[in-house]
C-alpha cells in the first residue's frame, strides 16, 4: 500500500500533516525535510533531502580582481591552493524522464534521480571521516559515459519511479559489469515502483544470472563493519529487526550488482521521512561503508575475472591423458574460471603426469561423467541433486571414481549443501578429517604445514595444518572435501574476502589430489 499523499495545492495542510507526525522539518541536518509530490500520476515524492552544501569560497576577505578580461595569471593570488580532487569512485546515474515542476513559484527541471541529490556524496564524506579513505561521487548521463570501470568503478541507481533503459545501454552495462564495474541499486524510501523496474532491468541485462538475496555470511556485511541483523524504520516511526535484505548478482567470486529494496540513500544523507521503509541512519551508513570497501577490495579481482583462460587442448584427442571434469549444478558452479587451468599447468610443470589442458563440464546425469577418474564440484551457494543424480554419484563412487569438493571462498551455504547431498548419495558414510599421514598429503609434495588466508587466521586462529576431510568406501578414499577454499588459490590472484588456502599451499594440495586420483 502506498502512503497517503499530502494535499498538493494546500501548503497549510501539508505543514499540518508533517507537524501531526510529531517531527520537525529540518534542512541540512537529521530530521524530516520538507517534501513535495509530482504531478498527478507520479508514483513518488520529488524531494527527499536538501541539495549538497555549497563549496566554501576560498578567496580571502578584501581581495579584489582586475576588470575583465583577466590576464593569463591573476595580478594578485591570495587564495589558498586547493588540494587535488580525490578520484571519482561512484557515479550517480541520471534516471527518469525530464519534467518541469513548480517549486517556490518557479518552474524548475526535475528528474526522479534528483530526489536525494546529496546521498552518495554525503556517504563518501562520512566514510572519509570515519575510515580515512577519500573518494568523490559524480553525476553521469549514459549518453556521455564511457562505460569503462577504470574511469568509474561503480554506478548508483536510485529513485522512486519506474524507469526503462534502452537496449544499447543494457548491452553496455552488461559489458561494464563483466569488465569489473559494480552496479548499486537503492529503492529510495523503499519505493516499490523503482524496485520492480530495477529488478526488471537487471533481468534484461543478465538473463542467466537472477538477483538473489545475499546471505548474512556475504563479505559485503563484514568487509569493514561486522553487521548482523539490521533495524528498519516504518513510515509511522516504529522499528523492527530483520536480517539484511540486500540482493545481488555474482560474477565469479564478486558481487557485481548489489540492490537494496529498502531505503539506504536517505540514511546516507542523514535524514528520515514519514513514508516508506528504510534502514536506520547509522546502520545505513555502515552498510554503505561496507559496500564501498567491498568494491574497492574486489575491483582488481573483477578486472582479472574479465579475462578468460583458453584450454588450448580442448579439441585434442584424450587417449589416456588426465582430463579435469567439473560438475555443473544449479548453483554458481564455476566461480573460479581460471582455477583449473592454473592447477593443470602447475601439475604438469611439477610432475610426470600426462595432464591435458582440457576441462570437461558435465552434469551427473550425463553418461560421460562416469568415464572420468575424478569429478570436481565447487560453488558458494546452496544446491540440490535430484534423487537420480544422487544415485548416479553413489554408483560412480562405489565403482572407483573420486569426487573433489571445494567450498568456494569457504562459504557455509555450500558446506551445508555438500554435506546434505552426500548423505543422499552415500547414506551409510560420513565425512571425517583425513589424518596427516595419509598418502594424499605426500603423493607429489610433502604437505605437513600450509598457509591460510588472513580471514582464516582472523576468525580461526593460527592454523597451519591442512584441514581436508574425506569419505571412504571399502577402505578407499572416494571423496575429498575442503571446507577452506582451494580454487581461489589456484587462480593465483588475491581474493580479499576468501576463507581459504594461500596460493602455494592450494596448488600443492590440488596437485597431490590429482596424482592420488590417477594412481589410486
Task: Walk me through this protein's architecture.
It is a single chain. The chain has 520 residues and is of the alpha/beta class. The protein folds into two domains: 11-54 and 84-305, Domain of unknown function DUF4159 (Rossmann fold, 3-Layer(aba) Sandwich), CATH 3.40.50; 322-519, 3-Layer(aba) Sandwich (Rossmann fold). The chain is 28% helix and 19% strand. The protein has helices spanning 11-20, 119-131, 167-178, 192-205, 265-269, 281-305, 339-349, 387-398, 412-425, 454-460, 487-491, 503-519, and strands at residues 88-93, 99-103, 106-110, 136-140, 154-159, 182-187, 212-213, 230-233, 239-242, 247-251, 254-260, 278-279, 322-327, 355-362, 374-379, 402-407, 432-433, 468-473, 476-482. Helix 7 (339-349) crosses helix 12 and helix 8 crosses helix 9. The model is unreliable at 1-41 and 57-75 (pLDDT under 50).
Q: How would the blueprint of this fold be written?
A:
Blueprint: H1 11-20, E1 88-93, E2 99-103, E3 106-110, H2 119-131, E4 136-140, E5 154-159, H3 167-178, E6 182-187, H4 192-205, E7 212-213, E8 230-233, E9 239-242, E10 247-251, E11 254-260, H5 265-269, E12 278-279, H6 281-305, E13 322-327, H7 339-349, E14 355-362, E15 374-379, H8 387-398, E16 402-407, H9 412-425, E17 432-433, H10 454-460, E18 468-473, E19 476-482, H11 487-491, H12 503-519
Parallel strand pairs: 1-4, 1-5, 5-6, 6-11, 13-14, 13-15, 15-16, 16-19
Antiparallel strand pairs: 2-3, 7-10, 8-9, 8-12, 10-11, 17-18, 18-19
Helix pairs in contact: 7-12, 8-9
Amino acid at each position: 500500500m502506498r502512503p497517503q499523499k499530502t494535499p498538493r495545492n494546500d501548503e497549510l495542510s501539508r505543514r499540518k500533516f508533517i507537524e501531526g507526525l510529531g517531527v520537525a522539518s529540518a534542512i541540512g541536518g537529521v530530521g524530516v525535510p520538507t517534501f513535495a509530490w509530482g504531478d498527478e500520476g507520479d508514483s513518488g515524492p520529488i524531494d527527499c533531502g536538501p541539495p549538497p552544501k555549497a563549496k566554501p569560497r576560498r578567496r580571502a576577505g578584501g581581495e579584489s580582481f582586475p576588470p575583465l578580461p583577466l590576464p593569463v595569471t591573476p595580478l594578485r593570488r591570495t587564495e589558498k591552493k586547493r588540494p587535488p580532487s580525490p578520484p571519482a569512485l561512484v557515479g550517480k546515474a541520471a534516471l527518469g524522464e525530464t519534467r518541469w515542476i513548480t517549486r517556490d513559484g518557479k518552474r524548475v527541471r526535475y528528474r526522479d534521480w534528483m530526489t536525494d541529490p546529496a546521498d552518495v556524496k554525503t556517504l563518501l564524506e562520512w566514510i572519509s571521516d570515519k575510515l580515512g579513505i577519500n573518494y568523490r561521487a559524480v553525476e553521469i548521463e549514459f549518453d556521455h559515459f564511457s562505460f569503462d570501470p577504470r574511469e568509474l568503478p561503480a554506478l548508483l541507481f536510485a529513485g522512486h519511479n519506474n524507469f526503462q533503459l534502452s537496449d544499447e545501454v543494457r548491452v553496455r552495462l552488461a559489458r561494464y559489469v563483466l569488465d569489473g564495474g559494480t552496479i548499486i541499486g537503492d529503492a529510495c524510501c523503499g519505493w516499490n515502483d523503482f524496485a520492480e523496474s530495477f529488478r526488471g532491468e537487471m533481468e534484461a541485462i543478465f538473463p542467466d544470472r537472477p538477483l538473489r538475496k545475499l546471505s548474512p555470511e556475504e563479505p559485503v556485511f563484514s568487509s569493514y563493519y561486522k553487521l548482523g541483523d539490521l533495524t528498519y524504520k516504518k513510515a509511522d516511526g516504529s522499528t523492527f529487526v530483520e536480517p539484511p535484505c540486500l540482493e545481488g548478482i555474482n560474477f565469479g567470486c564478486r558481487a557485481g550488482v548489489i540492490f537494496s529494496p529498502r531505503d539506504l540513500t536517505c540514511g546516507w544523507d542523514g535524514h528520515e521521512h514519514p513514508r516508506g521503509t528504510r534502514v536506520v541512519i547509522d546502520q545505513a551508513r555502515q552498510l554503505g561503508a561496507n559496500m564501498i570497501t567491498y568494491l574497492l577490495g574486489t575491483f582488481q579481482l573483477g578486472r582479472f575475472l574479465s579475462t578468460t583462460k583458453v584450454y588450448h587442448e580442448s579439441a585434442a584427442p584424450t587417449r589416456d591423458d588426465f582430463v579435469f571434469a567439473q560438475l555443473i549444478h544449479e548453483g554458481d558452479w564455476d566461480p573460479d574460471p581460471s582455477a583449473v587451468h592454473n592447477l593443470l599447468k602447475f601439475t604438469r610443470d611439477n610432475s610426470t603426469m600426462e595432464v591435458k589442458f582440457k576441462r570437461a563440464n558435465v552434469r551427473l546425469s550425463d553418461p560421460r561423467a562416469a568415464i572420468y577418474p575424478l569429478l570436481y564440484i565447487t560453488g558458494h551457494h546452496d544446491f540440490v541433486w535430484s534423487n537420480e543424480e544422487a544415485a548416479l554419484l553413489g554408483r560412480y563412487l562405489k565403482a572407483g571414481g573420486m569426487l573433489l569438493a571445494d567450498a568456494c571462498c569457504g562459504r557455509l551455504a555450500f558446506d551445508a549443501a555438500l554435506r546434505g547431498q552426500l548423505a543422499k548419495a552415500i547414506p551409510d558414510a560420513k565425512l571425517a578429517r583425513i589424518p596427516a599421514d595419509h598418502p594424499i598429503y605426500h603423493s607429489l609434495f610433502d604437505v605437513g604445514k600450509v598457509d591460510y588466508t588472513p580471514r582464516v587466521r582472523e576468525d580461526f586462529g593460527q592454523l597451519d595444518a591442512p584441514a581436508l576431510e574425506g569419505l571412504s568406501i571399502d577402505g578407499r578414499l572416494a571423496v575429498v572435501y575442503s571446507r577452506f577454499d582451494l580454487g581461489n588459490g589456484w587462480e593465483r590472484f588475491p581474493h580479499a574476502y576468501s576463507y581459504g588456502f594461500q596460493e602455494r599451499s592450494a596448488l600443492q594440495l590440488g596437485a597431490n589430489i590429482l596424482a592420488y586420483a590417477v594412481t589410486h
